[in-house]
Amino acid sequence: MAFVFMVLTVRAEDWPQFRGPTGQGLSSERGLPLEWSESRNVMWKVPITGLGWSSPAVAGGRVWLTAAMEKQYPISLRAIALEVATGREILNTEVFTVEPNPLLNAKNSYSSPTPIVEGDRVYVHFGPYGTAALTTSGQVVWKTRLPHDPEHGNGGSPTLYGDLLIVNCDGIDEAYIVALDKNTGQVRWKTPRRQPSGHAYSTPLVIRTGNQDQVVSVGAFRVVGYEPRTGKEIWQVEYAEGYSNVPRPVYGGRFVYITTGLQRPLLLAIRPNGAGNVTRSHVAWQVERGVPVTPSPLLVGDELYMVSDLGVATCMDAKTGKIHWQERLGGNYSASPVFADGRIYFLNELGVTSVIAPGRKFRRLATNSLEDAWTLASMAVSGGAVFIRSADNVYRIGAH
Q1: Tally of domains in the chain
Q2: Residue 364 falls within a domain, yes or no?
Q3: Separation of alpha carbons 353 and 300, rounded Å
Q4: What is the number of other CB atoms lying within 10 angstroms of the CB of residue 97?
Q5: Cα(258)–Cα(39) distance, integer angstroms
Q6: How confident is the model over 216-228, as pLDDT tens digits?
Q7: 315 lies in which domain range?
Q8: Rounded CA gap, 24 and 295, in Å?
Q9: Using CA atoms, how far apart are residues 165 and 391, in angstroms rounded to an integer?
Q10: C-beta neighbour count of 65 within 10 angstroms
Q11: Residue 260: how many CB atoms within 10 A of its CB?
């Protein structure tokens, strides 16, 4: 199957944003370890001060994270950089402060969105608490706030398109998608969501279909394709019972694959070549068994993979939705799966990674456990290593 991706300009070994270079959990890295434990193939393990569930972004020899110093008042929201080679902390700078939010979800944090690294700039986003651009040496270039009330804290990460930083802002008070000038932080366009709106935490994905670029943005009760330069709506698909959406879309072949959220999680395969409301005409198929509320799906060749929050993994035909297999992996899941070195890695919430072979028959290759018992962030892959963030530590795991 041919894939068309809108990617950041990065080195081959970089993982510069949520879900990697393509934004879809795919890596071209080779030589990754198949097995690991606390005493095997851990190149380094370093503690992180503060809590955050932003996934690692790896670029330019650094691992970028965000974290919140929740025991301080006001809470300090920080950007952190570690040296890839050693894990040594080389930057830890305050970007914003925030008052405590009593409605923060127990599985959320004040710093859940993943940074984006491009050249000598790092873009950090803390939902309504603030968005900023920093130099890789830690100087703040610009700061802004995008007001909305997501009810349970921040979640979705931004995405880059040319000179634009595009962000979903889905609150219970107001909901919109906005594009900021990545050089200044000024609003270039802002498009309100249609009513009814509601809270959601998904990350937009830029795709190219035919001769047209689109931003596919999943929100409460609908997914919309927008023109990335103007914010003009191209198409939309509605789903009456979906909100609190978290998974990022994936795209390949003829379809965009999205999940509809908390109330009734469905996975929809949508042809993104329509105009207007295409709910009845452009949904090719849907699946309702084993659909995740939190982890994003993964497209590898002609198969689409997903893992439910309760640990049921599914492989289905990406063209038809036919289920090839469903297997219980064990544990609960928040992190999104990764394909790298010809394998699929599923990280559960207790530090256990199930490694499987892609294909129409289920084949488990390894089960790897870490001592850290809280792993909600998605892993990163770069430079022949896997990077895993737990509540307290960051691991670089590689074959020595």
Answers
A1: 1
A2: yes
A3: 19
A4: 15
A5: 38
A6: 999 999 999 999 9
A7: 42-50+166-398
A8: 12
A9: 28
A10: 27
A11: 28
